[in-house]
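USER:
Before I trust my own judgement here, I would like a peer's view. Write it directly below this note and I will take it from there.

ASSISTANT:
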Amino acid sequence: MDGENSSPAPYQVEKTPEIDRTCVTFTVGNKVGILQDTLAIFASHQVDLAKIESRPSKVTPRAYDFYVEFDSPGEEILSRLMEELNQKCTSVNLLGRAKQAQVPWFPQKISDLDLFTHKVLAYGAELASDHPGFTDETYRIRRREITEIASNYRYGQEIPRINYLPEEIKTWGEVYTNLTRLFHTHACRQHAHVFPLLEQNCGYGPNNIPQLQDVSNFLKQCTGWTLRPVSGLLSPRDFLNGLAFRVFHSTQYIRHHSKPLYTPEPDVCHELLGHVPLFADPAFADFSQEIGLASLGATDEDIEKLATCYWFTVEFGLCKEGSEVRAFGAGLLSSFGELEYSLTDASEKRPFDPFQAALTKYPITQYQPLYFVAESFEHAKRQLREFSQSLSRPFDVYYNPLTQCVEVLDSKEKIAALARNIQSQLSVLTHALTR
């Protein structure tokens, strides 16, 4: 097949364990030390509280209602616990037990992405038996050299430069020449606008493979996005989590020279020709980060839905441009054959709807029989935000671009701080409008 179909496809996802939780409410009077005495009951039975909330009682004057969650103990311990709570508190209610999915760990600062370095699922230095370079020992050694560089990379370092070999540059040039012939008629206007800038600023050309650090510097100036080298295919969760920090994990190795117009996995042609140009567009950059933020702490089922939305947009998305349709997905923009095919009548086209796209099955080894068409990147971002709010994550997050950290909005104080920040920005906007 001409071109490649590569993305963080939803497979090999580790199942998130469930926690058996017991929920109880109780009311205590406004008496010095009463709460400490009550919590001591839980401690005496070696029950650790996972969650505790309080508020003034609406029924009993000068009293407080408490809601607690804890890992469910045995029936005998629970019975004694409830008996002692009833002796100490005004009222006690056992709300029952509930199986609750434990929130998966997720990065909260950009340097946490270092933890993904050795979590590659596939490809990288190890090749499948059907890979074009599997029997080429020279190619395999070269792949190991390049992937080792990515494995040793840490946040804050300069991305090491690769001295690409003449054969690798020749393969790049063949891909580059074939694709750029189609960009003028098949790529979206945002891609067409940025691509000449990459040629001017980052060394894009048929006779030169750009260096990730140069491209990352350019993206940082445009939209705040950066590139990070990766040694192979990450899990859907890890890959999408990176997008939350406006970080794109990019390979540095190149496909095998025997099949320059085909690769079974992401390579530097796919990353730099397909993905990078759109990350320099503010609207698309925001849309991509929206998927990443929604993935933080999401359940395995929701990760699969988000990865599928990613597939039908960032990898294989089409968009409207007046009365015409153009390609913006990297899987299309780096695949000569599928880029041509995608805009013909051979495939079905539907308006992009994340609620529908998230549940749509797709092939990964052939051209797509169905493409979703976005009205615009801004419209798609609003749609995705609405979809994200329907997912089961019990909290919201906010990305702070100053600290490059993610803040979990799980308290009134954090929400108030965000509100003050937004209010300050609105004040600047209002003042600018009046001028």
About this structure: The chain has 15 helices and twelve strands. Residues 412-434 form the longest helix (23 residues).
